[in-house]
Amino acid sequence: MKKNKIKVNFNNMMMSGLGSYGISEKDIKKLSTKIKIAINNLNQKREDGKLGFMYLPYDTKIKEDIKKVANMAKERFENILVLGIGGSALGTIALQRALKHQFYNLLPKEKRKTPKLFVIDNVDPEVASGIFDVIDLKKTMVNIITKSGETAETVAFMKIVWDKLIKQVGKNKLKDHIVVTTDKNKGTLRKIANEDGFVSFSVPENVGGRFSVLSPVGLFPLACIDVNIDELLKGAEYMDSIVSNPDIWKNPAFMMAVLHYIADKKFGAKITVMMPYSNALKDAADWFAQLWAESLGKKHSNDGKIVNVGLTPVKALGATDQHSQVQLYNEGPYDKVINFIRVEKFRKDEVMPHNFKEEETFSYLSGYTIGELLNIEQKATEIALTKNKRMNMTIVLPEISEFTMGQLIYMLEVETAFIGELYNINAFDQPGVEAGKIATYALMGRKKYKEKIKDFKIGKESIRYII
Ligand code: PA5
Question: How far is the CA of 389 from the centre of ligand 1 (A)?
Fold first, then answer.
């Protein structure tokens, strides 16, 4: 197992790497009481069953149920269509991209061996019609994922798909095409699933959307495309054994959280850049952006004070963004921490041939692999940033596999939960997101919410400046 352990290199966050622009061991020591309290709080919440995401790696029963339904889906369908948004979609997208071929859905069936997986996570009207140009609903299983069971975007798409399915396969066959993933007891979708007897999975009550990728939310669609969910959960379980260590010098999740916290408090570094050097991990940065932003951006502290805290996530991709964002990171304001993700061994690679021998400007590349070049570029960017006294750290994945992705997901979730404790905020609610949902319901004329229009000052009189 140790061989495939992911590691975090935080040398370039520290004074040893950055001089006075870095964090000292003394800075960390000064925080020891706060760290102790944060660890106690986190442990207490875990014991009280409030941190459901920490139990997910151990849920063997659900894993087996998922595999059964996924095997049936694999046999019978050409496509899996996921309808969901935010935490009900981003983790699946990230893991599909990480663990399957970038052009998975385009692979011929003999190579793919499973259905294609499409995730619709927006109400874009062109997507809403475009998807039906590439899938035949008669050969499609639809997985409707919404924990609340009522989110407008997901329901909107569901209504369209529902109607089309009835027209194409008939009402009595609707059930064969739908799997519902929602709260165990609450919400309209749960009511419909129970009344009409749809196959359904539950999102545990104590698991919030953005922490739910290792629940049926992510596991079911991923199992349908032969992602090894046992290994994914094993990776998370393994990371749990590491990040349960109260010694922050041995706990990468706690240490990263502490460093981000000090970087904010001491240097005002409120921007967190997540920059994987791997196209397969591009959407993992997107998943992280939601986790970080929605968990940490909060108005109130746990004791009710207005604090307006938060760290702004930015997604970048190496080496592509070396030719765009990196200029800002090297020379712009000192307000960022760059988190690189580096992959030691790629699953596939290409060697650059020994051609253009006369042209030194080309031939120096000969004999290197594309993977080597990518990793050298990551190192080069790291060196340049460090030289410019820019805080950065590197998460090193020995390879991209279910086991390492399980570790990465779990480590970043614990980091987020822990830094929430350091800021003394509730990392598990999202009143800002709910406010948007409520305003949408009000504008769309949903019964209970119509009155809310007044609260949001929505109306002609509020539009004063428009060009
Ligand atoms: O993290 C969260 O709680 C949110 O991003 C939700 O996942 C998102 O709003 C979708 O909610 P639901 O699953 O209830 O449709």
Answer: 38
